[in-house]
């Protein structure tokens, strides 16, 4: 019987307001494992259910309050709907003829994250992972499926690959930036906890236009520092630091 490690729980997630659970996207609410910030670097046993109960309720109340405060029912633009439909059906189109099987691409993504961004992490391996993820991103956009839309696991995976890739990029970039070991994050090249890092969160934002963005204002000197944007084919992803009570002063360009 083969025995090996696997991902059990993601401590990071979507940035949400702690009281309403609304994300940075108006009208989009998140709670539970998909939302970040609740458990720090290591979730304690049993806290996942408590998280769901408490913040699930807050998300529901926040969503209801948000809807009640709207002047009218939001309208979805037809061109946005058409663009979403075209993107979803792309794996069936002639534009992806000769493209790879989505299961092959998923296996490569899984292998890359397991080997280079696994339990014990090192800078050179994570940098290699980011290079491989750029190649996988290109391949993901041209995966091809056959059959019909009725219960088609290959098509479902083709749709999921975009999100799998985005989460992988967030994990790899944040892990490379955090130069310490803490909780579920272990660096072979930075094997101990750094007290300064305890007060720093890392946030990735799809801003577009190659902008650089600092973290929350007023958090202290150098509590947030913009990063070098890394293009993933859709938008510029900017990693920035956000202070959580005390500043961390660092030197260098890369965040």
Main pleated-sheet profile:
3 strands, antiparallel
> How much helical structure, as a percent, in the residues?
25-40%
Total helices: the number is: 5
Reading the helices and strands in chain order gives: HHHEHHEEEE
Oligomer: single chain
Mean pLDDT, rounded to whole units? 81
The whole-angstrom Rg is: 20 Å
Low-pLDDT windows of residues: 208-238, 245-255
Derived structural class = mainly alpha
Based on CA inertia axes, which overall geometry fits? globular
How many beta-strand segments? 5
Distance between the termini: 42 Å
Strand order of the largest sheet: 3-5-4
Strand content: 5-15%
Fill in the keyword field for this structure:
two-stranded parallel sheet; 255 residues; disordered C terminus; single chain; three-stranded antiparallel beta sheet; mainly alpha; globular
């Amino acid at each position: 019987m083969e025995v090996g490690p696997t991902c059990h729980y993601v401590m990071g997630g979507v940035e949400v307001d702690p009281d309403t659970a609304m994300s940075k996207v108006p009208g989009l609410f998140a709670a539970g494992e998909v939302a970040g910030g609740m458990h720090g670097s290591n979730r304690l046993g049993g806290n996942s259910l408590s998280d769901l109960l408490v913040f699930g309720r807050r998300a529901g109340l926040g969503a209801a309050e948000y809807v009640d405060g709207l002047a009218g029912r939001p309208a979805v633009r037809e061109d946005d709907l058409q663009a979403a439909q075209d993107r979803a059906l792309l794996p069936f189109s002639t534009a992806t003829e000769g493209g790879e099987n989505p299961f092959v691409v998923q296996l490569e993504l899984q292998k890359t994250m397991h080997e280079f961004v696994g339990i014990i992490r090192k800078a050179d391996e994570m940098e290699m992972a980011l290079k491989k993820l750029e190649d996988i991103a290109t391949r993901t956009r041209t995966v091809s499926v056959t059959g019909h839309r009725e219960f088609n696991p290959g098509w479902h995976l083709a749709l999921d690959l975009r999100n799998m890739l985005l989460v992988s990029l967030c994990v790899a970039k944040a892990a490379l930036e955090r130069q310490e070991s803490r909780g579920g994050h272990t660096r072979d090249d930075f094997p101990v906890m750094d007290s300064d890092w305890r007060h720093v969160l890392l946030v990735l934002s799809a801003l577009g236009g190659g902008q650089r963005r600092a973290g929350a204002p007023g958090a202290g000197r150098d509590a947030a520092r913009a990063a070098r944007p890394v293009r993933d084919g859709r938008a510029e992803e900017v990693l920035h630091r956000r202070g959580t009570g005390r500043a961390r002063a660092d030197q260098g360009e890369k965040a």
